[in-house]
Amino acid sequence: MKKNMIAVVGLNYKTAPIDVLEKLSAGCGREGNFPAGLKAIPGVHEILHLSTCNRVELVASADDDSRPVDMLKSVLALNGALTDHEASCLYAYRDEDAIRHLFRVASSLDSLVMGETQILGQVKDAYRRALAENAIGIVLNRLMHRAFRTAKRVRTETGIAANPVSVSFAAVELAKKIFGSLAGKKILIIGAGEMAELTCMHLIGNGAEEITVANRSTAQAEMLAEKYHGRAVGLGALDEALCDADIVISSTGATSYVVTQDMVRGCLRKRKNRLLFLVDIAMPRDIDPAADSLENVYLYNIDHLQDIVDENMKNRRRESLKAEQIVHEEVAQYFNWLKELEAVPTIVSLRIKAEGIVRMEIAKESGWMEGLESADREKVEALVNGIVNKILHAPVTVMKEESAEFQSQDIVAAARQLFRLDD
Amino acid sequence: MASLETIMFVPALACCVLAMAGYLLSLLVKKVSLARVSTWILAASFVFLSLYLLLAAVHSTGWNHFGSRHFLSIYAWAIAGIYLGSQFKSKTRLLGSFIVPFILLLLIAAAGYGSDKNLVPPQWQSWLTKLHLLLAIAGEALFVLASAAGAMFIIQNNLLKHKKPGKMGRLLPSLGELDRINHLGLLWGFPLLTVGMIAGAVYAAFVWGGRWPADPKVIWSFTIWAAYGFLLHQRLAIGWKGSRIALLSCVAFLLFLSSALVIRFCFATVHNFI
After folding, report:
1. CB of A187 within 8 A of CB of A200?
2. Which of B165, B174, B239 is closest, CB to CB, to A179?
3. Which residues pair with A340 in a beta bridge?
4. Backbone angles phi and psi of A72, in degrees to 5
5. Rounded CA gap, A95 and A83, in Å?
6. Residue in A114, A102, A13, A103 with CA at minimum distance from that of residue A319
7. Alpha-carbon dihedral of residues A309, A113, A17, A38, nearest 10 degrees?
8. Is the minimum CB–CB distance between A186 and chain B shorter than 8 Å?
């Protein structure tokens, strides 16, 4: 009998430079296609293809020898047209290591930003694609569901995804701490930078409504404003826009202050002292730090936000210890199930062999048995079957029980030899 | 105290102690969930207290048998009720940790008073005095809520201004919500107190003639009323918001608290209920 194993082959942001990663991954934000030919690799029974911005991996259930792993590696290398040197970035995990790796990936413990929640969705997508391709059977099915379960436990039982670890999310969190609900809050974006847009997007996602974009080039401002159904103004109308806004995000390339303390002070009365949240993500700074000394004005620059993010990251690392423990438990449970599974084919062939013997022996004796009453004949057959079952009961039970333990392979191998199942 | 009333008062006090412990713990371990549970325990305390006061009201005829314990309990009941009411509209469970100490102190003081002797002389009993008492207490309870929100605002404001929100900042309610509660407390508390004081004044004018303004409690109450009136005016007309109002609310509240204590222990007054 051939044994099965679980293997993970691939590369990620830790093992491969970005240009190598890019050769293999379908590109960020796009769903990778299920590469053709994966199912046809000899020795591979089930396979799943995971491709994200930061990793490309194949998860497979395959024959337990080194050939399938080598094949998987060369398929990946071929797929991305990797040179020999680049192909050395590929890693391969087997069995327990592979299961642990997959569970850690799904739980976002292996992510670039530990605790990010996107990866679980990506793993689920990969699973769905493989299902659609009919590339998944009982082993990977169970494995993936275990991976999802592990990820869910990690998310709910640890604080690993609790606090924001990106500057834009940290700004949103602060806005919530200042305003409570962001519903109906007005946002002013100064300078149409990428980071400001990202922060703005998160704020809108949390209920903020009116968007105003102020930029030196109004064309660019209009483009951004249109995207979020807002309005665009030139820098000349900044004063007025500032008085109107609740949240200001500034990221211009200007070398001097775009928003001065006096501008903010001039607004306070007009805005009836409503709370004002200023986010300065520009380098050099756009908003005069002195504005922070004004009442009901909260100014955070990129350094302040980065400090908060660093602190949260430290907390996540602490929480990851708990998460690793959960992964450890789940791996052990899955591995037990897998080992139990190893005994199943042997038990099945044992039963088939026994039934064959019974059928053959009864056929041999058919001469005198034909003289029996049909009721008596049934009794004889029942007796024979009963004896066979009794004899098989003990070895089958032992195989099932022992297979959950580590030495299962020996017991299963012994049973195959004792009953000559491989002949 | 009738035994059935005691049966209601004791669990009210016990629940309040438990809620206090819960709030303290939630501040200590920085978990909002504990404050959430504590709010429910406080609600239980409020229910027992309501039953206790209901029984007391049924037992008494007019103001007879209505003593210090009852007055203090009404104070505690009003503050608890107003805080719990505010929780329907906002998610500021942690605010309870600043309010429950007052409720607890009032209940402990209530428990300490053995006498149920009648504090309101029979000749003063009128619907006007009842109105005066209830509205004044409700108004003051709202000021307690407004000031507690103000105190919490100051702490949260400091955390955010110093760019170190951390775990504490995450735990405490948002500035916007605290400011709103402060606003509502002042907005509702001031008219209630005003009507309550007018009711008292009208009654006093009839019964006492020209003698009543000399009562120290009256003079102090008028000062406090003016202070809160000023705050509300600044808030509504001038547009003061946030930290300045929060700070002034706390100052006004300290003034109110110290005046109440000073009058209680140092002066003779007709308002000698507690």
Report:
1. yes
2. B174
3. none
4. -60, -40
5. 28
6. A114
7. -170
8. no
Give the position of tokens 């735990």: B171
Task: State whether residue B239 sits within 8 Å of chain A by CB.
Answer: yes
- H helices of A245-373, where? 261-270, 302-364, 366-369
What does the alpha-carbon distance between residue B198 and residue A293 come to, in Å, rounded to a whole number? 43
Summarised one tens digit per residue, pLDDT across range A97-110 is 999 999 999 999 99
Six token digits for residue B93 = 């469970």
**Residue A284, preceding peptide bond in cis (omega within 30° of 0):** yes
Q: Does A163 touch chain B (CB under 8 A)?
A: yes
pLDDT for residue B150 is more than 60: yes
B161 contact residues in A (CB cutoff 8 A): 292, 298
Q: What is the pLDDT of residues A188-222, one digit of tens each?
A: 999 877 878 888 888 888 888 889 999 888 888 88
Residue B243 has its nearest CB partner, among A174, A274, A295, at: A295
Q: Which residues of B touch A274 (CB under 8 A)?
A: 241
Using alpha carbons, list the distances in angstroms from residue A137 to A4, A121, A126, A130, A134. Answer: 13, 21, 14, 10, 8
CA–CA separation, A144 and A102 (whole Å): 9
Supply angle C-alpha A330, A160, B23, rounded to 5: 115
Tokens of A316: 């996540």
Cβ(A85)–Cβ(A16) under 8 Å?
Answer: no
Q: How far apart are CA A309 and CA A300, in angstroms?
A: 13
A178 to chain B, any CB pair closer than 8 A? The answer is: yes
Pick from A173, A177, A307: CB nearest B163: A307
Strand partners, A259: A287
| β-strand pairing of A55-63 with A44-51 | antiparallel
> What are the contacts of A395-398 at 24+ separation with CB within 8 A?
A395/A350, A396/A347, A396/A350, A396/A351
Average pLDDT on A9-21 reads 88
Ramachandran area for residue B139 (φ above 0: left; ψ -120 to 50: alpha; else beta)? alpha
Contact present, A246 and A188 (Cβ < 8 Å): no
Distances (CA, A) of B139 to B69, B122, B186: 20, 25, 9
Residues 6+ apart with CB under 8 A from B196: B131, B132, B133, B134, B135, B136, B137, B138, B139
Q: Counting one residue from A and one from B, how many pairs have CB atoms under 8 Å apart? A: 56
* Residues 6+ away with beta carbon under 8 Å from B114: none
Alpha helices in B90-174 (DSSP H): 96-112, 127-161, 166-171
The sign one gets for the Cα dihedral A348, A352, A353, A355 is positive
| Contact (Cβ atoms closer than 8 angstroms) between residue A164 and residue A173 | yes
| A89 alpha-carbon distance from chain centroid | 21
pTM of the model: 0.76
